[in-house]
Amino acid sequence: MILAADAQLRLDANWIDYLLIAFYFAFVIGIGILARRSVSSSLDFFLSGRSLPAWVTGLAFVSANLGAVEIIGMSANGANYGIPTVHYFWVGAVPAMLFLGVVMMPFYYGSKVRSVPEFMNRRFGSAAHLVNAISFAVAQLLIAGINLYLLASIVEVLLGWPLWVSLVVAAAIVLTYTALGGLSAAIYNEVLQFFVIVAALLPLTLVGLNKVGGWDGLKEKVAGSPGGGEQLSSWPGTALSGFDNPVLSVIGIVFGLGFVLSFGYWTTNFVEVQRAMATNSMSAAQRSPIIGAFPKMFVPFIVIIPGMIAAVTVNELVQFKEDGSGGATYNDSILYLMRDLLPNGMLGVAIAGLLASFMAGMAANISAFNTVFSYDLWQTYLVKDKEDSYYTAVGRVAAVAATLIAIGTATFAASYSNVMTYLQTLFGFFNAPLFATFILGMFWKRMTAAAGWSGLVAGTAAAVGVWVLSEDVLGVIGIGEQGGAFVAASAAFVVDIVVSVVVSLATEPKPEHELEGLVYSRSERTRRHEEVSRLPWHQQPTRLAGVALALVVLLNILFW
């Protein structure tokens, strides 16, 4: 993957760059040490004592997602597909983030559950809870491995450190601050990492645009490159979706990415939801994903555009895009651009920004994993009724174990020339069926406990089946890559819904009084937990979400 172009990508970093990187590492660990002082209970360790303000958790919400796959994967998509990549943000993220804030956070926060699987336990019982907890834990280990592998690979390529050294150093730093300070350390570091990432990528974007003659110059060069003018329009996005038919392409993007994958990820993924659950009030919990939506919608300008610039200015990528020859891949896009455009000093900031993105993603996976493992697996099924400090200790051990396992799973992503394909495949397996179960169970009180776990299993099996039949494995179905992931996620959603409905009609539902606060029709008190109308308009979740929705619609129109 990235290692194929080692010699070409090696950066001429000097002592100034290393000093900046060392200072950043020291600062990150220092935050973990300071956060350790505020940990006096398991709630402090796993959920920051539900005490953080909305602006902190909002930035952490988007930063936790702004990891290795986001930076490397989306710049790779920018180089490969161009502007249609914005669908991952404006269709495949922001609407779901707003839905999470307005509709779903009242259920999570109002019920005072400590994790998403715990909500599943209350709604559907232990079988669905166990399936969800195990699948989530496995997914986090795999995704943490992606972040760690990319981080170590890039450090090896850019700075010449051996891969094993990079793996150990990166894992040790993330483990140190997550094991010391728990979720608070992860969140405050994610806020810091957000600003470091922007400080690294914004200058790279501006310098790159200047090199190609501004936006007009970039459009001219992209139009003349392989892929042509289609790379400058977001719709119909046939190259991105894998469908030659424009209508099918739009349906695939809107339903497969914009609904199933997006809502499945943002509304049920505890990595993200955990940040909002760490806030100090219901309205703050609702505002966290909504606040995060504002920077999220502008991330494409510092991630996708550099990839597009690299595809038309970096000789190795120009050659690769024309005929597939040479040692470069699209995953190398932002690295090549750093090599060609940034002077020493700024190079150190850029490297620190990449390291920040990888550590933010990995720390988010580790902190979510140790919460679910400790609360939903260890405490629920293995060792019950111990003192609170015992489960905090279990969480720290789980963080160590997860980091070691992530080192072992780190090479799984190596066979993908575009890591976004791997990630979307995982989301189809784990998030799409979970979203189907959640959304049906939340709005249909007749759905039963048996339907909860059987729908999850059937949906996951459907996604795996489509993946096996796709061009990526057996080639029976003539679609693969990210389009294949969209189809697999859609199959998982539909099969989950069908199986859940059939099983629900054949089994006995819970009594209605047991569903209080767990389904929409029985949650009026939960949804009206605070008198929101008394808050200033910018603290009212629905109004803030309306502003964000209007902005993202405008962006979609401007880049149509």
Automatic annotation (TrEMBL):
Keywords: Membrane, Transmembrane, Transmembrane helix. It is found in: Membrane. GO terms for cellular component: plasma membrane. CDD domains: SLC5sbd_u2. One of its GO terms (molecular function) is D-glucose:sodium symporter activity. Its main location: membrane. The chain crosses the membrane at residues 15-35, 55-76, 88-109, 130-152, 158-179, 191-209, 247-268, 289-312, 346-373, 393-416, 422-443, 450-470, 482-506. It is a multi-pass membrane protein. Pfam families: SSF. It comes from the Bacteria. Belongs to the sodium:solute symporter (SSF) (TC 2.A.21) family. NCBIfam families: sss (TIGR00813). This is Na+/galactose cotransporter.
